[in-house]
Sequence to fold (355 residues):
Amino acid sequence: MIYRIGKILPKSWTDSRRLFALFVKPQQLKMLVLDLDGTTLNDQKEMIPENITAIKNLRRKNPKIIVCVATGRTFHESVRFAQKIEADFLLTNNGSAFYQRVGTKYELGKAFTLSEQQYQTIYNQIRKYESENSDLAWRIGLADTRYNIITDNQIGVLKKIHKAFSLTEEKVVKPVLIKDFAEIRKQGLSQSLLNIYLDFGQTALGKKQYQEFEEFLQREKVDYFQWSDSQYEIVPKGVNKGSTLAVIIAEQRKKGNYIKEHEVMVLGNAENDLPMFEKGFRSLCPANSWEGIEKAKNVRRLKVTNNEPFVQAALDEYYRKPSMVKRLLEEIKERHEAIRRPAVLKREEMEKEHY
Fold:
């Protein structure tokens, strides 16, 4: 399709800059952000060889690229995947903490936590429910790299809740078992507490407690995810993958590495990825992503699933300039026609009145 210059050239400086970036400046990806479950991992919770190869090839072509894993998993549940692709940053617990690669290991960069008083209030409420409901299971994520979670002595139930979160990976559970909140202080872990994850079970009592607990959380002024009709994940107010990713980018700017929105590509598939998509980065998701993913207006669903080479398909999409240019030109044309339409209608009405 050929557009007449006088009718389709962008009228705004913003459009001109975007076209210049597409036609003249080479597309340079400075940061690649990868969700794990349902995105970079297949349904068997494995990272397929094609995705690993795609990331390694990207690093070879672009040595300065920053690769960031952003997951809802805990540190111990996700670090092996970060090591496999030599990710520069590992963002865990849905943004409650991030770690930076130092050699082959990862060190804590920053943790975002609730106040100790909030944790104790929520903990006391959970233990009250637990005394009535034997099916209830809970865990508190830790930023401390020595351990994975805090829970009580219900190891059997712990395995159930852990499977619900990351399938058959009990071997990476490194729990700290406690009987009361005071033990957390004794072990010096009160400053390492991250998100709280709990499952009320499927009994009538569990469902009643589940509904009551939402009202309790709203009074406590925290954010939370409802992963099913029995499961909650509680995080500090305003803390999510998007907010923590913004912190990482801000720290890069302090070091002189200025990363713009169009130089970041985010790959995700679920509700907890929406805060990243809504930041305005280039956002792509697999074909079999959560059905509500389009709540974020700028996310694009590819035809490839997470069981296929999705990462390679996403990189191909990022560097595919012709399709990007076509979409931008069509967007400009639609906007231009929308502006002209009232004037055209008015002119047609005047012509009718004249004749």
